[in-house]
Amino acid sequence: MKFTYYGHSSFAVEVKGKKIVFDPFITHNELAKSIDVERIEADYIFVSHGHADHVADLMALARRTGATVVGAYELTEWVQKQGHEKVHPMNTGGKWHFDFGTVKCTVAHHSSGLPDGSYGGNPMGFLFMTGEGNFYYSGDTALTFDMELIPRWAKLDFAVLPVGDNFTMGADDAVIAAEFIECQRIIGVHYDTFGYIKIDKAAAQQLFEEAGLTLLLPGIGETIDAIG
Prior knowledge:
seven-stranded mixed sheet, 14 strands
């Protein structure tokens, strides 16, 4: 299962030939200048919440690719008001069987407002259960005991967790989250983009190593084998 990092919390995973993009925020990210957003393809775009640093490129990418936008009900209503009708609304706790596998929406403790100030619905994470592997993207969130439910639903091959602190959990809490979700292979996101979330990458990886875990911090534009 290939994972491509576009910076901040934006990445893509290919499952069963479907290109799935998450939280597209590229053109406004100074660290992602090497990424040509016009070359990104998407069959689906999953959006964890409505903050600008997760939806800045959403509409342009959705219109150009014709992708189905998946997110909270209120967020998908907003997408439709922008003139893109191809959406799949969901909400916390629900699941749906897509053509690439099953996705369950999980609790994320955060906030969610859209760029125009309207309500973005519940912030969410996504649990993907597919024939090619299972993974969890927590979205922007604090550490929460709700994460202990994840192993009841699926055995994970990898997880994508924020590690930047200040707006979300930091690397120390992400270590605990990895233990809650019973996953040893973690890909870190939501760090370094702004001054508030700059991290010491070596120190963060050392925290994980001391806990018997692996923290992967791929470079922007890098594609890795997520399952290893």
